[in-house]
């Protein structure tokens, strides 16, 4: 396995030192260097361009988002955001993810060394996922109609239909492209996006401001209804429950499943049990195999199942594993998924 070369950009000397120590202790990773701001970083990286950049947001002379946009326009490179755990930081980090960052690692204001030592596996997974990624610039917004075609009206006459989406690395951009293309009367949607707890609310609020559909971070007891999207809170599992003709979600703690909490497998398995043939499952860009087994269970329960194709994925991991296990009925490009959510039969 080739060594992953990393460059760190952070205005804190302590952060640069600790990150360098932690990453250099990981097999298969080498820190090429570090810099206190993007202007110094660009000069240093010319000697040897890194495979992955670990980037802070708030820095002197040039902030991380400005640098990220410049980078994606001139020389797209996988970027992992390393941001402080604050509400302001969460909102800003969501802007960075939309601009093309691959993943987020959260850092506390105090106790940094102990935190990063404990989070070594999480940090290494983020670096590996970024190294495998194909960075993409932010997609153009869709001008989809606000109502669905008459031919698919039966999909929206009842809450009996539900769509479950699962994604990870590269998923913030992918979800933005899909959800902004949906009409207001699309089926109710439940989503797991691998993301730290402090960021899912900001992510949902940002999407809510961009989309025709309503988007919110899920809370226990929320109903799944047409035109609404519920995103699993970071750090908690989300499952689907059925009561008569209504669907609701349950949000709960629990052990990691497929190395994640929230887990796509947990959501998909609950959808298989609660909705069966009335469900559509979609697995999208992401590293690893979370969701592959759950999608197979949805397929075996009679649900329609789709996977994002390799060409449009930032990381073709989760969809690839789901296809290999036999749970994917058809692969689609990212730009086709919104249409398939509204009228899946035309794509299968």
Descriptive overview:
InterPro entries: CheB-like (IPR008248), CheB_C (IPR035909), CheY-like_superfamily (IPR011006), Sig_transdc_resp-reg_Me-estase (IPR000673), Sig_transdc_resp-reg_receiver (IPR001789). Keywords: Chemotaxis, Cytoplasm, Hydrolase, Phosphoprotein. One of its GO terms (cellular component) is cytoplasm. It is found in: Cytoplasm. Its EC number is 3.1.1.61, 3.5.1.44. With 348 residues, the protein is of the alpha/beta class. The chain folds into two domains: 4-131, Response regulator (Rossmann fold); 150-347, Rossmann fold. Helix content is 34%, strand content 22%. It contains twelve helices and 14 strands. The chain has helices at residues 13-24, 38-45, 64-74, 87-99, 112-118, 120-131, 171-179, 200-210, 264-274, 292-300, 318-325, 334-342, and strands at 4-9, 29-35, 52-55, 79-84, 103-107, 162-167, 188-193, 214-217, 228-231, 237-243, 246-252, 279-283, 304-308, 330-332. It has a seven-stranded parallel beta sheet with strand order 8-9-7-6-12-13-14, sandwiched between helices. α3 packs parallel to α4 (87-99). The longest helix has 13 residues, at 87-99. Residues 141-159 have low confidence and may be disordered.
């Amino acid at each position: 396995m080739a060594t992953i070369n990393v460059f760190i950009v952070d205005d804190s000397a302590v952060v640069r030192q600790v990150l360098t120590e932690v990453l250099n202790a990981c097999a298969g990773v080498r820190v090429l260097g570090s810099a206190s701001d993007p202007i110094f970083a660009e000069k240093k990286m010319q000697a040897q361009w890194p495979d992955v950049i670990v980037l802070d947001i708030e820095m002197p002379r040039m902030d991380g988002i400005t640098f990220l946009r410049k980078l994606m326009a001139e020389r797209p490179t996988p970027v992992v955001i390393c941001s402080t755990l604050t509400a302001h930081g969460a909102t800003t980090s969501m802007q960075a993810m939309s601009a093309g960052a691959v993943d987020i690692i959260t850092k506390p204001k105090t106790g940094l060394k102990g935190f990063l030592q404990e989070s070594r596996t999480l940090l290494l997974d983020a670096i590996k996922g970024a190294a495998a990624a194909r960075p993409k610039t932010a997609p153009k917004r869709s001008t989809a109609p606000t109502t669905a075609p008459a031919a698919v009206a039966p999909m929206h006459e009842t809450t009996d239909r539900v769509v479950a989406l699962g994604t990870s690395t590269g998923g913030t951009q992918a979800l933005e492209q899909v959800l902004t293309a949906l009409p207001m009367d699309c089926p109710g949607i439940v989503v797991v996006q691998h993301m730290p707890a402090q960021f899912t609310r900001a992510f949902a609020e940002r999407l809510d401001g961009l989309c025709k559909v309503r988007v919110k971070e899920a809370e226990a007891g929320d109903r799944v209804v047409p035109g609404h999207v519920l995103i699993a809170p970071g750090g908690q599992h989300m499952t689907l429950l059925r009561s008569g003709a209504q669907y609701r979600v349950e949000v709960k703690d629990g052990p990691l499943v497929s190395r994640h909490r929230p887990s796509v497998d947990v959501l998909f398995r609950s959808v298989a049990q609660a909705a069966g043939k009335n469900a559509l499952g979609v697995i999208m860009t992401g590293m690893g195999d979370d969701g592959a087994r759950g999608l197979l269970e949805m397929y075996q329960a009679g649900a329609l199942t789709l996977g994002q194709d390799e060409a449009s994925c930032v990381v073709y991991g989760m969809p690839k594993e789901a296809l290999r296990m036999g749970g994917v009925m058809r692969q689609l490009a990212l730009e086709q998924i919104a249409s398939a959510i509204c009228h899946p039969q035309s794509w299968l």
